[in-house]
Amino acid sequence: MTILSIETSCDETAVAVTRNGREVLSDEIISQVDIHALYGGVVPELASRNHAAHIGRLADAAIERACITKQDVEAVAVTYAPGLIGALLVGVNFAKGLAMALGVPLIPVHHIRGHIAANYIAFPELEPPFLCAIVSGGNSIIADVRGYTEVSIIGRTRDDAAGECFDKAARVMGLGYPGGSALDKIAQAGDETRYSLPRPVIEGFPYDMSFSGLKTSVVNIMHNAGQKGEDVDTASLAASLSAAVSDVIVPRVMMAAEVFGHSKIAIAGGVAANSRIRADILKAAEAGGYTLYIPPLRLCGDNASMIGCQGYYEYLAGNIAGMDLNAYASMGADVSFCRI
Ligand code: KG4
User: Fold this and answer.
1) Residue 250 vs residues 8, 83, 210, 211, 298: alpha-carbon distances, Å
2) For ligand 1, is residue 7 a contact (CB within 6 Å)?
């Protein structure tokens, strides 16, 4: 089955063509990062306007790159939740128009389920059940993936996402936006014991996480030093933060894998690119005898091929939308598609 898929939940406009879920025929993306970098964060209105400006020609490019014609498209899949509402609406409305014009089914895809599906593309042998940690700029979630469309959320952040914590810390350290990757690079030369940062625990919720206190600690260290005219060892602060974020995520993932009886662990989302988290989870997985799946960097961030892949499994499960499909800024990944 040939699916054209659309992803516009945040600041990447992406269109892909996939076949039978895991075969990627084309994967087009336009990042708006330079536009939002001017403001130090994503400006929702600008994101929507830029999606609207680019989505049409990106869809044409995806079809051309896949060496197919519009008539070969058998379904249109689109991210409909969660994300920036205006940004999502651009993708959803474009997808509706395309599906109606081509006379093909419209498949609604949850963004988090899409991130999980990035692993199906990267690892053709991977099948549920497995445990998946989705750590990105907008989400930090530990999910029990029992089937392609059976996902239960075991743990989630109570406040900021891990990526937001990295980005805000990087911004105050003068590393630009989004600074997660730059922070990761400078951390390599730092001493992670130089700054003492919190590892928050949420009483009674062993798999839930919190990153806002960590973010505030870094901001306070920078501001206090600035007020006193002292220098900050930014490489060591970056290393201390990376170690703290990893210490929040990795032990919870390992505990969840054990308690929920999984032998396979996957990670997804942009923060899965972090070298400290990768190294820690690799070590823990090896020690515990787990099989670990970490997609390549290009599949960790937002992209449309992961939406096409998950869209295929949603289609097989009968999750088809009508022309009344709406977009939702928030929605649990464990909620199966229903018309609301
Ligand atoms: O999945 P993604 O592309 O977009 C969202 O859905 O949010 O993730 C982007 C996030 C940003 O916060 C970015 O700073 C972070 O992933 N990121 C990293 C690294 N590379 C990207 N964070 C820490 N270390 C990295 N190497």
Assistant:
1) 29, 25, 13, 14, 22
2) no
